[in-house]
Predict the structure.
Amino acid sequence: MQDERRPFGIWTAAALVVGSMIGAGIFVLPGQLAPFGWTGMAAWIAAGLGAMAIAMVIADLTRAMPHEPGLIAICGEVLGPMAGVLLGWSYWVSLWCATAVVATTAASYLSTLWPPLGTTPLHLALGGVVIVGLLTLLNLRGAKAAGRFQVATTVLKLIPLVAVVAILASLVGASGGEFSEHAHKPFAASDLTPALTLAFYAILSFETASMVTERVQDPARNVVRATLIGLAATTLLYIVVCMGIVLALPAEELAASPAPLSLFVERFWGNEAGVFIALLAAVAGIGYVNSAVLLQGELPLTAVRGGMMPAWAAPTNRHDVAVRPMVLGSVLSAILMIGGATSVGAHLLDFMLRLTTAAAIWIYIGVALSALLLRRSRGWAAISILFSLWVLYGAGIEAGGLGIVLMLLGLPLYYATRRFSSAAASG
């Protein structure tokens, strides 16, 4: 009989990894990387190899400590509760910041079907709020319901990427002339670091399955397989899709398009196909939001069950869902989206977007440091730290420094937790 507290098998865990990685990023990234030309290819390869090094460390730690409820708990066990709380806080903040951006992007794609939705920034923001609200209600019904929805959206979001691959294959089979018709910037070492940061942003969240270890059946086996398989498959798909589009269309046209995948499909298959791809791009964003909302509750819950936070920080409902942090994260996302509809808020939204990678990168550094202290996968761990610092540098001094400040904002939470624990022990 299946354990209700571990509803995720290998396929659901893999869908969580793939579904979290394939958010709205890949649907706009060809336009962002187009000005980099062939440097974009090098950036994808570097980002994929760096992520694989980190994934190898995560896999080894999961095999070594499958009893821990998640990656944050592992870091807290090895590095200490303060590090665990700070890493978890930083990652949790990056989740609802990214959720706000992706939900708004999903609403923007949906406006191709219902134009009034895109008439004003406030309409788009309210559309994003509705998406986050509905997915929060779904996740409050439990991890099993969220997992089923994730599998469904993962299958749907793969369709536009498969469509692009099919078009690229037909172009190669015909003559491949489209790939040499347009001039593209040659490789430039000076452009590699900023291009890497963009590419790695789309790869973020490959660690999702390891964040919810306690929800996965046989985690020592299935979390490892889901992470490595999901990361390798998604990165390869990204390289083919993104670089294929970049090489087949003029760089200036791609850079100016808010929906490069729709532009590409429309160019070769017509307007209706482009609209259909836009709809599925919205589904991709919705799938990401679903997994992010799930993690908004799961991360604090794993911290509680890992002994780093008191139970009052993440009380659960009858579906074993940590309601308080999940709902709080969704409310903060909604505030950010509505604030983004104003001129001041728009600056704040852009500010949070730039911080997302800088805030999320610290969990990878924490994982690598944990492995070094445990004397496990030391070579991969050293590579992971160097790679993470490279990405952090590419995010810029401002974003990197603010990411550190953002993480340190979790210190009051740690000391409040410590005082509560001391009071409970003395009582």
